[in-house]
Amino acid sequence: MDYMIGVDIGTTSVKTVLYDTAGKMQGYSNNLYPLYQDVPDMAEEDPDEIFSAIIDGMTTVMRKADLKNGTLHGVSFSAAMHSLILLDDDHKPLTRAITWADNRAVKYADELRENGVGKQLYEKTGTPIHPMTPLSKLIWLRNEQPDLFNQARWFVGIKEYVIYKLFGVLQEDYSIANATGLFNIFNMDWDDQALKVAGITRDQLPKLVDTTDQITGMKADYAGVIGMDPQTPFIMGASDGPLANLGVNAIDPGVVAVTIGTSGAVRVVTDKPKIDPKGRVFCYYLSKDHWVVGGPVNNGGIVFRWVRDQLFAPEKLTAEQMQIDSYDLLTEIAAKVPAGSDGLIFHPFLGGERAPIWDANARGSFFGLTRTHSRAHMVRAALEGIVYNLYTVMLALEEVVGKPSSIQATGGFARSALWRQMLADIFEQDVTIPESPEGTALGAATLGMYALGMIDDLSAVKNFIGVANVHHPNPETFPAYRALVPIYIRLSRQLQSEYKNIAEYQRKYVHKSEKK
Asked: Any idea where the Carbohydrate kinase FGGY C-terminal domain is (predicted)?
């Protein structure tokens, strides 16, 4: 049996999957690490804790490989986008990894949007202006931590740091670079204007390479621990969003991938870069002739967790005592409420929001509450609000790439039949749930097989996955959702003028009281 390993470096864990060359999972490891949130808006990780998790993950799955009767052909990486680590002359970290979820650069992202420079940069980089991006983070560090900023010799992301630790070379794939806000998607190089705005030079950034680039010669100590031949090819791979599309076979024109995990996204593949004149969606590189256009949202399953923990704590305890899944219990409760939650609307912006409003100050709200509404209405409205928000991303995407021909849905939410049906009903389209657990890791492994010449085309991924469920929209729900979605959208726009005010109040008063 021959093997390929896909490594998915996520926000809270690294998932390492051993596949055979038919795309079947032969080994799996999920290694967690903490997200540090010491002060308001912070979201950081320790790069060495992540590196250790990757070593542990590869070591674990290598024990599952029968290398006496087979060959490990390679390892391919996926990584979360937008991370930033400052390194010194010796490539030692001066900071933790500042993740996409860190909002401390919000002031500088707002300034870029307001002065028009942000629009200029978006039209060249395909990366919306937001505090998530290394571009915004660099401006923030330069202005608010100048001593630290000036100590830095290199500015990298987590994947680049891992590659350097393993191989002693500093390089960055086009896909990860694309998401920094510093990369020009039309000339495939660092953008001079973006670098000037960030206050750095190109010699402070890694060498750029394609997502199919291969590296060999792993340091012997690490190879020995993992149990891997040091000459095993490592493929740079891409960022997690584009690889998630690949991993669920959403790479043909018009095939949309909708993902809801902790966060969420709506994405479609095109054969060339496409920009939204209104700046609502991203455009990220996957591989030659494959660009992923879409929008990420901050608020997916994390909203459901908040509802469970804050509004349904007794039910959560009951579920634990009965040894049943607390989320299943909540969806049973929500299913008893009619579509549209009897006119209760929830804006799920508990952690700011990215697409389509790109406002880190956005805050959540229930609208339409009356005495007739119960907690059951609130949980259903929360689930619907997450899907309403994804639908608004889809509407923006349609203006750029056209109406979707089909929808492939993945993520933790896909375990819920109610949520899957909501997606079909609100989008008014069939929703297919591919049978591909850990689709991002599978996408990485598939890209690795393509890079190594083991498959002729990325479309071979269709042979690696099956179809578990297809949900058809229920026309009986259309009147409710067609009436409520426009209200949801209008409210989002009207509330946006106040989001900054309430966010500033919370930063000034609420977080201070929490510290006491």
From this structure: 257-452
DSSP code, position 8: E
Q: Per-residue b/e over 81-116, b at no fewer than 16 CB within 10 Å?
A: bbbbbbbeeeeebebbbbbbbbbbbbebbbebbeee
End-to-end CA distance of the chain: 59
In sequence order, which ranges of 367-411 are alpha helices (DSSP H)? 375-401
Q: What is the 3-state secondary structure (H, E, C) of 68-81?
A: CCCCEEEEEEEECC
The mean pLDDT value of the chain amounts to 95
Give φ, ψ of 28 to 5 degrees. Answer: -150, 140
Per-residue pLDDT, averaged over 380-404, amounts to: 96
| Percentage of residues of the chain with pLDDT beyond 90 | 91
Q: Residue 348: which of 337, 339, 357 has the closest Cα?
A: 357
For the purposes of burial, counting CB atoms within 10 Å of the CB of 366, is it exposed (0-12), middle (13-18) or buried (19 or more)? middle
- Rounded CA-CA distance 333/261 in Å is 21
Query: What confidence tens digit (pLDDT) does each residue in 247-284 have?
Result: 999 999 899 999 888 889 999 999 999 999 999 999 99
Please check whether residue 307 is in contact with residue 330, taking contact to mean a CB–CB distance below 8 angstroms: yes
The answer to whether the beta carbons of residues 235 and 212 sit under 8 Å apart is: yes
Which secondary structure element, helix H or strand E, spans residue 290, and what is its range? strand 290-297
Report helix, strand and coil shares of the chain as percent, to nearest 5: 45, 20, 35
Q: What is the pTM of this model?
A: 0.92
- DSSP letter at 516 equals -
Tokens of 445: 């492994």
CA proximity to 107, closest of 143, 146, 81: 143
The answer to whether the Cα torsion of 235, 236, 240, 246 is positive or negative is negative
Rounded CA gap, 82 and 346, in Å? Answer: 28
CA angle 341/345/346 to nearest 5° reads 115
